């Protein structure tokens, strides 16, 4: 089964079991997000990112140009609060 098919099945199962009030709130939030056109401005997979600098795990500044000088750069985002 393709990932997209699995995600679709998971969504259908969730919507079949979630409280109606929660679904209404989630659907309205999705409509609001679409109406904001925010998603039109986000980078897409494969696009070139602008140069940036961020702090690493030890607080040291790391520039994307420095990393790119050593080879290809993969950026991973983690969601969470530690």
Notes on the structure:
This protein is mainly alpha-helical and 82 residues long. It has a domain of 39 residues. Helix content is 45%, strand content 7%. The protein has a two-stranded antiparallel sheet with strand order 1-2. The longest helix has 17 residues. The two termini are 34 Å apart. This is Thioredoxin-like fold.
Summary tags:
Thioredoxin-like_sf, 82 residues, 2 strands, mainly alpha, 3 helices, Thioredoxin-like fold, two-stranded antiparallel sheet, elongated
Q: What's the gist of this structure?
A:
This is Thioredoxin-like fold. InterPro entries: Thioredoxin-like_sf. With about 80 residues, the protein is mainly α.
SSE blueprint and pairings:
Layout: H1 3-17, H2 20-36, E1 53-55, E2 61-63, H3 64-68
Antiparallel strand pairs: 1-2
- Helix-strand sequence: HHEEH
- Which segments are poorly predicted (pLDDT under 50) over 5 or more consecutive residues? none
Measured on Cα atoms, how large is the radius of gyration?
19 Å
Structural class: mainly alpha
Beta content: 5-15%
- Which whole number gives the mean pLDDT? 91
Helix content: 40-55%
Strand order of the largest sheet: 1-2
**Oligomer status:** single chain
Largest sheet: 2 strands, antiparallel
Helix segment tally: 3
Overall geometry:
elongated
Protein name: Thioredoxin-like fold
InterPro entries: Thioredoxin-like_sf
């Amino acid at each position: 089964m393709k990932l997209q098919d699995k995600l679709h099945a998971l969504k259908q199962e969730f919507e079949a079991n979630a409280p109606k009030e929660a679904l209404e709130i989630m659907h309205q939030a999705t409509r609001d997000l679409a109406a904001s056109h925010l998603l039109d401005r986000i980078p897409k997979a494969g696009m070139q990112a602008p140069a940036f600098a961020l702090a690493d795990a030890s607080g040291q500044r790391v520039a994307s140009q420095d990393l790119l000088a050593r080879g290809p750069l993969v950026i991973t985002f983690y969601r969470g609060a530690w």
